[in-house]
Fold these 2 entries.
Entry 1:
Amino acid sequence: MEQKYVINNCKSFKVKDVFDCGQCFRWNEQEDGSYTGIFGNNVLNVKQELVCDEYKITISGVCDGDIEEISRKYFDLDRNYETIKDSLSKIDEYLAESIKYGEGIRILNQDLWEMIISFIVSANNNIPRIKGIINRMSQKYGKKVEFRGKYYYTFPTVDELSIASKEELRELGLGFRDKYIYETTKKIKSGEVSLEKMKNENNTIKIRDELLTLSGVGPKVADCILLFSTLKRFDVFPIDVWVRRVMNDLYIHNPKENKVNKKEIEQLAKAKFGDLEGIAQQYLFYWKRQNN
DNA sequence: GTCCAGGGAATCA
DNA sequence: TGATTCCATGGA
């Protein structure tokens, strides 16, 4: 049974910015410009319309509970992004421009386990291929959910993915990452690394250190997990090729971009953006990646 | 054929 | 600690 939740006069929520800014891999644009995606056991469609100069957001779909409650949590609706953007825009003109470009970004509250696996897959990979791999993984090991005559597949749980052999994982086209997924799944399934313990830990560095013990999780992947999952840490700064590029172009000006020291970028980000560096990173990443 | 992708692990100094 | 190299795969 479909549910619906409408938000009138919605600020800081543009579907393209939210779903195409690189934080999620399971939302896809539909013919009418809306986006459909699956998270948990929920399949939702999000449609944006301009009404009297304000955005009206219509969320509808099949839900594992109350759609309003689920949406408020997942889309981070109880956080004031206007305040965040005002504060970050004052830092310098570059950040202000990137925020203007990505003004509709919200950082989603995505499942921790799904983010761990997804960002291991993302290593030295491109977004279309990452989406393909995650989709095949879900089709094979997840559960089927029907929505408007089409089938969607839930992201496999720890138990569901732990039955996959190394060979089966290889068949998904994971490349060299198959062993990372296999070993990390085993480590979490066995309880050697506890996701619940991470969720109850409030020290970001401690969680980060725990994440770094997982196979295939290095500094960048750990920071993406901390930023994009329900762990929701903004005091991290994931540095990939694009972030290195934009930080070098704007502030460092090293003629050899691939030689820029990561520590220098980290310290610069912390000094300039403070405890909002994670969100700043996302505006800069989206801006640079879309505008080359 | 070559280069690149939201990097990490292994190796070596 | 810090820098190099290798790692699968597929699209441009």
Entry 2:
Amino acid sequence: MATLKDVAKEAGLTTSTVSRVLNNRGYISNNTRKKVGEAIKKLNYHPNEAARSLRMKSTNTIGLIVPHVSHPYFAEMISNMEAFAYENGYKILLCNSQCTHEKEEEYIRMCLSYKVAGIILCSGSAALEVFDGIDIPVITMERFLDNGTASVECDNRQGGVLAAEKLIACGCRHLLHVGRIGTLSMPADMRTEGFKDVCDKKKVPFIELITEDTLYCNMEYSELLESTLSAHPEIDGVFANSDVIAAQTLQVCRKLNISVPEKVKIIGFDDVNIATLTTPQLTTIHQPVKEMSKMAVNMLHDAVAGKLLVRRTVLPVNLIERETT
Amino acid sequence: MATLKDVAKEAGLTTSTVSRVLNNRGYISNNTRKKVGEAIKKLNYHPNEAARSLRMKSTNTIGLIVPHVSHPYFAEMISNMEAFAYENGYKILLCNSQCTHEKEEEYIRMCLSYKVAGIILCSGSAALEVFDGIDIPVITMERFLDNGTASVECDNRQGGVLAAEKLIACGCRHLLHVGRIGTLSMPADMRTEGFKDVCDKKKVPFIELITEDTLYCNMEYSELLESTLSAHPEIDGVFANSDVIAAQTLQVCRKLNISVPEKVKIIGFDDVNIATLTTPQLTTIHQPVKEMSKMAVNMLHDAVAGKLLVRRTVLPVNLIERETT
DNA sequence: TGCAACATCTTTTAAGGTTGCCATTTGGCA
DNA sequence: TGCCAAATGGCAACCTTAAAAGATGTTGCA
């Protein structure tokens, strides 16, 4: 594979001149520019990123760490991230932690080795120590760390409030809240807080179904939901922590001959594409995934440029009413 | 950030010794090993991948190019790829071409610059010239190139055959086949071939609804489906090229008051998670995404090791009967 | 005992492709 | 002639690893 040196030789110039042409720096005559262009084309030259980043001490790569790639919420997040990253000249190094600490930590180490420009960490669980002495920016999504990284979240609390208010307004009196992960603590827990506050105020009881991260990672809640709904036939309103859970609730209701929304009303969270593909379509809390992704990439970009970041950014959610309420 | 040199200094050794410890090569005394380990921990040292890959002239990174990240089929593909790549010590550089030639080609160039170990290209559309003079392996998924790259596909033709046979066996006599992209030519087109062969043999007419890649990328077929089903009330069987299309067909049928499976039967393709979240659940052609992903990564691994690859690998599909037939 | 042959461990040296800085050359203009 | 702008060249540095060479220690045998 051709190197800068080869191009320089071919064009009858030195590497520094060619480098300057490539990076549009300093004085270059049009003639030189042309010669370099021809040499590059002739030799099919591609700049060596390794050498470049070795010299520059950084890359244009963002380490994107997610717990789950095929979960529609993260799939959409990744998709948006990639698009905004690309717009800003960044590439994405995709790291799937699969909900395990070890893999997450190993990927963080790897990102450091790769000298990524920064890390965007989505609702993970790595021990804080890994971030000690890190000299690159870390932006968290739906996760708040105590060590000074900037965080982007949606208004989880408000999501819980909206869901509770809606369910109660629809006449539900025995609620179920599904999806909070017992073993992790994250901003999404605030959904429960908001939900609880409204329920308490309106004196409507609710059951909280705390799940494990393995369920989260396998996206398999059916059994849990079936046993719970069977054991509690009084339940008439469900607030699920994701549309995936809500969609599975729908299937379980069908299996148990519980009509939705007549007997049980359901509200999901996220508003991803499956929300409009179920029957009935899901009423859900819309998360502004696109805006959140854009914000995260922009913040990372600002941080790289040395700007000071807002410590915590919370974006609004809203209720999208469809057919399950 | 600490370098190898710093570690060597801290441990009272030279860089090459430390390097040998890190890479487990040559003779190293236990004492040295211990000292190096301590120094690394103390300085929080992370090897510089850029320097490493500059020296080694290659990386452990796979360039994964997909047309679409949030499409459930690709999301699942990416998820599997990442898992198998990780198992084999590779990292994933995620490239989303968004169905555009330009972006795909730019990403290919970028992969060359990054000196990736190899490229896995999923059903893209880049001009072949981009691959001229490439010295790294390229594995294609669901795409067959004439220039000697190895390809992994599912038995698309058989998928079409199974779908047609099933629909006809269910009594359908006016079929619709949706999803073939008119502007691209790819292995998935064989689904149509298989479908057509069976229809011709059994003398069952079918309409082919050729779509554009913009629809594919936006996952938005509703309007097209609605107008087609309205214009052709005789249609009683639909073979969709993906579960996403099938799920949207289901919604359109509901809107048009067409009962599924009584009046119209539907068969999807892929067998991704939404297939079990619709009501009724989708009968679909199962693609062995996991096996295909594993195969692609393994083939890439073999290619890197210099092994000769099978030119074209076709994995079997099967029909999963659920509730839309 | 003396020393060659070998095993074990470490250092020295060079290379890999790019960029930033400083030096040099050329031509134009006061 | 002196000065400046425009254009290009020379060289070190970034961090790691491979290969060769050097430095010890150990064994075997005359």
